[in-house]
């Protein structure tokens, strides 16, 4: 049935208004300084450089299988665009047109704008399930587009700004219509996999909760036998898992074997129990609690307005419960079970309550597995509970109050939230604008570096090292001159191959058999040994704060270089 004009206007507003709110929040927080595709100044260091340089190498590498392979970024132990946190969903979509894109080109500012817009859109859709009031929905969206756990990720983890995927999963769980549920979940879970592994983990957990809910609801409604109930569940599970495995393989997720997925940090990068109350520099009203060093990953401040909202939701829920007696209810326990389980995993067995820390004893075998778990930054896993709390509180308030009362209450709560978050928002805005305008990473320039780029096709560190000090400068030089390099930073690597390559390259340069097409940057600890073993035509010298081996150089050293072969 076609929509009448009033419904069409409402539908258009239901899409345009939240998108505008999200865009406005993006410019409020960032000033728009991150948006220009040619501006890469803010992507010069650490995690931001990892994401940008992973894409910068990837766009120029030839197509291969899997499509996400990034061989120039890491050489033998190269990973993929997945493990440089370059948002493979976007990187793989842009690679076919990379030759027509300007140089340099970054899409991360546009990605962040999209994240803000989608965050507002899915928050709006969730709130539409609670209230028809446009004003109430607009006010409620503020708690989502300015959620501190999302905003702090602007400092370095751009893929992790995709909190909209969690909201989309919550919307699929809560929406009244169940049409196309299998297809929508398939797309959402696969997209989450192409954004970031942690986002995928949370979205997949919510899908599993919804799958259980729908199976139980259908069994109850149709009174079918247990085996018949699980048939559609298994079909959907097979479809979602197959789609996810396919896109994961295409993006290069499986290029790092299981042994390379191990990481250290479980129980360190966790959430403190007081995290929802800990403004940690974001609170105008001074809400600040002590925490352990690694618990910054569990920053999950609700804001004073958000805390007040959750507090008011308790009597509102009790009042609304009495009013809604006899009304149909959606099965919520699978959602709550997932939210609680992820929250407990976020806290881990290393329990922190402010400055106090306790460690629950675990069986030795389990402790060993957890210590090497691929999931190390567990504090992030509270995000499902964080948004479930906000949504539940807003639903309870909407059920208990009339429309005008709801708007008035939300207006007051949003005002408190904005005042409270003002220090954090102002500090973040200033930092982002300064980072986008300040070029504090001088490139490697000079006659030698130009000549070396014409002569050599690879740039190596010896000994090989991931996340070496100053790696960003070396990787940027290699990329600008079309050289492959192992001076990189990645989230995961095949450590067995890495160790083999490291040993092999140290042996080559210390026995006078370097690769002819490779320019080496030496660790000072091995420079003297390399200089003694170097062949007559090899140059070993210090320049621009680096110790360098240039195999077969056979020309005078560049001006300003200190010859290490003649050092005592």
Question: How does this model look, in words?
Answer:
With 568 residues, the chain is mainly alpha-helical. Among the domains are: 163-255; 265-400, no CATH class; 447-563, no CATH class. It has 19 helices and eight strands. The strands form two sheets. The chain has a six-stranded mixed beta sheet, sandwiched between helices. Strands 1-2 form a two-stranded antiparallel ribbon. Helix 2 (46-60) packs parallel to helix 17 (471-480). The chain is elongated and about 85 Å long. The model has no long low-confidence stretch (mean pLDDT 91).
Question: What percentage of amino acids are in beta strands?
Answer: 5-15%
Major sheet: arrangement of strands: 4-3-5-7-6-8
Distance between the first and last residues' Cα: 89 Å
Helix content: 40-55%
Low-confidence stretches: none
Element-level helix/strand string: HHHHHHHHHHHHEEHHHHEHEHEHEEE
Largest sheet: 6 strands, mixed
Radius of gyration: 27 Å
How many helices in DSSP terms? 19
Question: Structural class of the helix and strand makeup?
Answer: mainly alpha
How many DSSP E strands? Answer: 8
Average pLDDT: 91
The 3D shape can be described as elongated
Short description:
This protein has 568 residues and is mostly helical.
Write the layout of secondary structure elements.
Blueprint: H1 5-30, H2 46-60, H3 88-94, H4 108-128, H5 134-145, H6 148-151, H7 164-174, H8 181-193, H9 197-222, H10 226-251, H11 303-323, H12 333-347, E1 350-353, E2 356-359, H13 364-371, H14 383-400, H15 403-437, H16 447-455, E3 458-462, H17 471-480, E4 484-485, H18 495-510, E5 518-522, H19 524-533, E6 539-543, E7 546-550, E8 562-563
Parallel strand pairs: 3-4, 3-5
Antiparallel strand pairs: 1-2, 5-7, 6-7, 6-8
Helix pairs in contact: 1-4, 1-5, 2-17, 4-5, 4-7, 5-15, 7-8, 7-9, 8-9, 8-10, 9-10, 9-12, 11-14, 11-15, 12-14
């Amino acid at each position: 049935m076609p929509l009448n004009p009033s419904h069409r206007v409402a539908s258009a507003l239901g899409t345009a208004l939240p998108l505008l709110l999200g865009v406005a929040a993006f410019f409020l927080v960032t000033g728009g300084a991150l948006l220009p595709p040619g501006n890469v100044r803010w992507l010069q260091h650490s995690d931001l450089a990892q994401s940008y340089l992973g894409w910068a190498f990837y766009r120029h590498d030839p197509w291969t299988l899997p499509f996400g392979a990034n061989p120039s970024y890491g050489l033998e132990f190269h990973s993929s665009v997945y493990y440089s946190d370059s948002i493979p969903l976007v990187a793989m979509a842009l690679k076919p047109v990379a030759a027509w894109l300007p140089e340099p080109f970054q899409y991360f500012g546009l990605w962040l704008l999209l994240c803000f817009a989608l965050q507002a859109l899915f928050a709006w859709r969730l709130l539409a399930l609670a209230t028809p009031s446009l004003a109430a929905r607009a006010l409620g969206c503020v708690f989502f587009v300015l959620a501190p756990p999302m905003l702090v990720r602007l400092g370095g983890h751009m893929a992790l700004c995709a909190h909209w995927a969690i909201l989309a999963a919550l919307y699929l769980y809560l929406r009244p219509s169940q049409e196309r549920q299998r297809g929508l979940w398939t797309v959402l879970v696969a997209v989450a996999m192409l954004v970031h592994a942690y986002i995928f983990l949370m979205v997949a957990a919510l899908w599993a909760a919804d799958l259980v809910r729908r199976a139980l609801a259908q069994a109850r409604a149709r009174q079918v036998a247990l085996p018949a109930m699980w048939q559609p569940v298994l079909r959907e599970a097979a479809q979602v898992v197959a789609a996810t495995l396919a896109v994961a393989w295409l993006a290069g997720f499986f290029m790092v074997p299981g042994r390379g997925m191990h990481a250290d940090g479980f129980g360190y990068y966790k959430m403190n129990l007081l995290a929802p109350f800990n403004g940690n520099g974001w609170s105008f009203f001074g809400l600040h609690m002590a925490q352990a060093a690694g618990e910054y990953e569990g920053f999950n401040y609700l804001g004073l307005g958000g805390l007040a909202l959750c507090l008011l939701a308790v009597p509102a829920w009790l009042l609304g419960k009495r009013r809604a007696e006899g009304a149909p209810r959606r099965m919520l326990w699978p959602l709550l079970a997932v939210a609680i389980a992820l929250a407990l995993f976020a806290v881990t067995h290393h329990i922190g309550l402010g400055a106090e820390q306790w460690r629950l004893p675990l069986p030795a075998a389990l402790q060993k597995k957890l210590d090497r778990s691929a999931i190390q930054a567990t504090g992030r896993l509270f995000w499902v509970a964080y948004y479930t709390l906000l949504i539940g509180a807003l639903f309870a308030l909407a059920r208990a109050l009339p429309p005008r009362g709801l708007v008035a209450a939300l207006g007051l709560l949003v005002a408190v939230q904005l005042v409270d978050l003002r220090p954090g928002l102002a500090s973040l805005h200033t930092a982002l604008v300064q980072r986008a305008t300040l070029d504090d990473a001088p490139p490697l320039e000079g006659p030698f570096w130009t000549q070396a780029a014409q002569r050599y096709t690879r740039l190596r560190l010896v000994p090989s090292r991931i996340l070496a000090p100053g790696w960003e400068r070396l990787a940027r030089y290699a990329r600008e001159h079309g050289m492959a390099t192992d001076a990189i930073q990645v989230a995961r690597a095949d450590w067995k191959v890495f160790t083999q390559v490291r040993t092999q390259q140290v042996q080559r340069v210390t026995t006078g058999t370097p690769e002819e097409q490779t320019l080496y940057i030496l660790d000072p600890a091995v420079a003297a040994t390399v200089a003694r073993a170097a062949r007559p035509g090899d140059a070993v010298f210090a320049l621009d704060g680096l110790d360098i081996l240039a195999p077969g150089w056979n020309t005078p050293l560049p001006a300003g270089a200190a010859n290490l072969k003649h050092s005592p």
